[in-house]
Design brief:
8-stranded mixed beta sheet; alpha/beta; iron-sulfur; about 300 residues; rSAM_sf; single chain
Length: about 300
């Protein structure tokens, strides 16, 4: 009996469940510098003074130091609470209680004060609004153009859920680039964007192109997509009139969000850039730290 008791711990150890594979470790090429410097401080002060929301902060963007240090920022309108619950996004989810009709003026004035040469405007999803917030979108772009005529604008607009009248209003303000991110390949939509549809986002891009706009979209890598799925996504985007594509590494914002499946090597990002151009896209920004608004000022020169 004593001999049996002595062997029990050994038996338990031998029959224990196999160890869970370790999570992939963040590689060196994903290290970024902390935001510092006088220009960053200036933008920080203006954003706080004017009570503005930026996706730089809400989205935990790794390029915030570089972009704000250059005196630029991506502004998020229509509040900072989203009606969607995408598994990758750090923006708060819930029932928005903010609808500020004065926001277009404040954003336009802040951009004028900052002397921004190229502004990127984005927003949360406002599915509870009949027009998806389209009137605020239009007034914001028009207001920026009135106060800063030389400022070029990219609008990164959400999924309008096939409200095509809302889309027409959103893109009619005079912006140079209209972006709508598909975010991932079609097979991962249910996991990554459960309230969105891959084909509907493609149609939104196609309708934007048919309206004569310069079109842009973005995909996050490292969520479990295959090379073949990436090739298909690029083909789909090119077939629906996309001009500009950004490709970057997905980074898990908190433990509550979907985990990183793989850290993509810079060489593969370079390969995808060449593949995208070969498949008919006019401009591909591809790299581990690339985000939708990264080097956005370059995209206004892409021919329509």
């Amino acid at each position: 009996m004593d001999d049996l008791l002595l062997t029990l711990p050994i038996i338990q150890a031998q029959t224990a469940a196999p160890a869970v594979p370790a999570k992939p470790r963040k590689p060196d090429w994903l290290r970024v510098k902390l935001p510092v410097g006088p220009e960053y401080a200036k933008v920080r002060r203006l954003v706080d003074e004017h009570k503005l929301h930026t996706i730089c902060e809400s989205g935990n963007c790794p390029n915030m130091g570089e972009c704000w240090g250059a005196g630029t920022a991506t502004f998020m309108i229509l509040g900072n609470i989203c009606t969607r619950s995408c598994s990758f996004c750090a923006v708060a989810t819930g029932r928005p209680n903010e609808y500020d009709t004065d926001e277009p003026r404040r954003v336009a004035e802040a951009i004028q004060l900052m002397g921004v040469k190229h502004a990127v405007i984005t927003s949360v999803n406002r599915d509870e609004l009949k027009d998806r917030g389209a009137s605020i979108w239009y007034e914001t772009v028009v207001g920026i153009k009135q106060l800063s005529p030389s400022t070029t604008i990219e609008t990164l607009i959400p999924d309008v859920k096939a409200n095509w009248a809302a889309l027409d209003t959103m893109i009619a303000g005079g912006q140079e680039v209209v972006s709508h991110n598909v975010e991932t390949v079609g097979s991962l939509y249910r996991l990554v964007r459960p309230q969105a549809k891959y084909d509907r986002s493609l149609e939104q891009i196609r309708r934007t192109k048919e309206a004569g706009k310069r079109t842009k979209s973005g995909i996050m890598l490292g969520l479990g997509e295959t090379k073949e799925e990436m090739y298909q996504a690029m083909d789909d985007l090119a077939a629906n009139g996309l001009d500009i594509l950004t490709l970057g590494q997905y980074l898990q914002p908190t433990k509550r969000h979907i985990e990183v499946a793989e850290f993509i090597h810079p060489d593969l990002f370079a390969h995808y850039r060449e593949e995208g151009l070969r498949r008919g896209l006019k401009y591909v920004e591809s790299g581990p730290l690339v985000r939708s608004s990264y080097h956005a000022e370059r995209h206004v020169n892409v021919p329509i």
